[in-house]
Amino acid sequence: MSDQKRLITELENGLLTEPMDFGTEEYENFKLLIRGKVSETPKKQRIHISLLGLKFHMQDYLKSNINNKKVGSFIKQFIELVEIKQIDFANYLELRPSNLSKLLSGERRLNIELALILEKLSNIDADLWLRVQNHNELLTAQKTLRKKVNKYKLAELIK
Amino acid sequence: MYILETKTNKLIKSQILNPAKDLVPRKKESWSFNWLDVHKKDAQSIFALKEENKETVHGMLHLISDGGMLVMELIELAPFNIGSNKMYDNVAGCLIAYACRKSLKLETAYKGYLTFVSKTELINLYKEKYFATQTIGNRMYIDPLSGEKLINNYLENHE
Predict the structure, then answer these.
(1) Span B90-106, mean pLDDT?
(2) Which of B28, B75, B133, B148 sits in a 20 to 30 Å window from A89, CA-based?
(3) For residue A57, which residues of chain B lie inside 8 Å, CB to CB?
(4) Does B87 contact A at CB distance below 8 Å?
(5) CA distance B62 to B43
(6) Nearest residue of B to residue A31 by CA position?
(7) Distance from the A150 Cα atom to the nearest Cα atom in chain B, whole angstroms
């Protein structure tokens, strides 16, 4: 039996942690140490970590039943997290700044090509970028098209 | 995410959620911690790992955000998941990975760091299996890149 397995076997109960000693001097030093670790993180790694966070926010947004965040606002967050200006992002992608602006505001749809570029740059799947857009459009359509859609019935179609 | 049924080596689809009161494990069911008490005080801070479409809780997690730092205040495995005859494996891994994912969503000076106090006898287990680092007594942390590995291992790879 490995040491790890023996340890779990020997546990008297299922508790795997002790309570944190909030407020003590040692605890405050511990917090300071963690803050120091974060501030020492190199830029490339910091951006990688931020983009992971963005991916999780997008995944969780898809599980929600709300559509208050356009895919453009996630793209805007991406641009902020990689610490570049919108104009530089537009130039790099050979987009007109006005078209980027429309994309960010939701006036223009995200297309598959741009979703693939975002995947390459952010390591967030193109599918996830596109699903955020579809999620919003579907939730909106479920409200606006309900009457129109409800008139269709399978029984009527196959009679 | 999946946990592993030890007898059959079968993966069991599971989920982590904020439990409703009825789902919160009770001390009379041989759990060590009074989870109901925390549920009463702050229901949003506790999480249950349960099988999908079943009410069986396999493990519990209590997270506290202290000044922007995420603390894994308590993690407990179900009584049937400890000891040499434990029925399911990977429960702790899934709960810890879930907590790491939460820490990566933070927008604070502690982004990506999960902190906790280990039981003395589990320090090596946390280091080896969950890539945690020990510092200042039994306090430990899992850094963002280690957290990413745990998320990939326990939450994402089997989706």
Answers:
(1) 97
(2) B148
(3) 105
(4) no
(5) 10
(6) B69
(7) 30
- Band of pLDDT at residue A5, cut at 50, 70 and 90: low
User: What pairs with residue B133 in β-bridges?
Assistant: B141
Domain boundaries, chain B: 2-156
What are the structural domains of chain A? 42-145 (1.10.260.40)
> Is B138 an 8 Å CB contact of chain A?
yes
* Superfamily name with CATH number, domain B2-156: Gcn5-related N-acetyltransferase (GNAT) (3.40.630.30)
From the CA of B62, how many Å to the nearest CA of chain A?
10
Name the DSSP class of A153: -
What pLDDT sits at residue B83? Answer: 80
Q: Give me B95's structure tokens.
A: 């709960």
Nearest to residue B70, comparing CAs of B91, B96, B43? B96
To the nearest 10°, the Cα dihedral for B103, A122, B148, A65?
A: 50
B135 interfaces chain A, CB cutoff of 8 Å: yes
pTM recorded for the entire structure:
0.91
Coil, strand, or helix at residue A80? Answer: helix
Handedness of CA B29, B154, A77, B132 (dihedral sign): positive
**What is the CB-side half-sphere exposure of residue B11 using CA atoms within 13 A?**
10
